[in-house]
Amino acid sequence: MVSEKALFSIGKGLIERFKKVVRDKERNLKDCYLPYYIEVESTLSTHLLVITILNQEITSCSHTAEEDMFKLMEGIDAHNNELFDAAAHAAKGKTIKDMAREVDSLVIKLKGTINSSLITSLEQYARDLHEADVIEEYHFLQDPCQNTLNLTRDFKANIPSVHSSMHVQ
């Protein structure tokens, strides 16, 4: 009877020690990797806001009488100028080219640190930003930005399993 209790107590102690080691490893992984994912998430959240604003740009109108056309074009120009001002404010003065460089810098900084599929997604998103800057169209940026942001949030929420093979002290 005493030996059974002793074995049970030893077994329980080993299980508790194992749980503590696992919790400590998870906490260490989160402490190490969380700032990187927060940085990516913050950057992409800002980009998504800017892209959403830019996507409200009016680029065409239907044909009307010449007099009405001038008034309509003035209204469209005023609307678009407001949008561009709002986008510039949301981007803290950054252009699409600056945003592309920002993502390129993140990739360089975080390659080998965060999950490689997120790096691949960021690289593709940066290429999309560079293309958007050249052609001055932004409508196709929303989905890649949103998808990369969702991927970032998924990895951020699962840091212990995503980086389980890493050893952090």
Your description of this structure?
Helix content is 79%, strand content 0%. The chain has 169 residues and is mainly α. It has one domain (2-162). Helix 1 runs antiparallel to helix 3 (96-110) and helix 1 (2-54) packs antiparallel against helix 5.
The percent range for strand residues is under 5%
Give the N-terminus to C-terminus distance in angstroms: 41 Å
Radius of gyration, rounded?
25 Å
Number of helices: 6
**Integer average pLDDT:** 84
**Shape designation:** elongated
| Number of strand segments | 0
Q: SSE order, as H and E?
A: HHHHHH
Determine the structural class based on helices, strands and strand pairing.
Answer: mainly alpha
Helix percent band:
over 70%
Tally of discrete structural domains = 1
Please give the largest β-sheet: none
Uncertain spans, ≥5 residues at pLDDT below 50? none
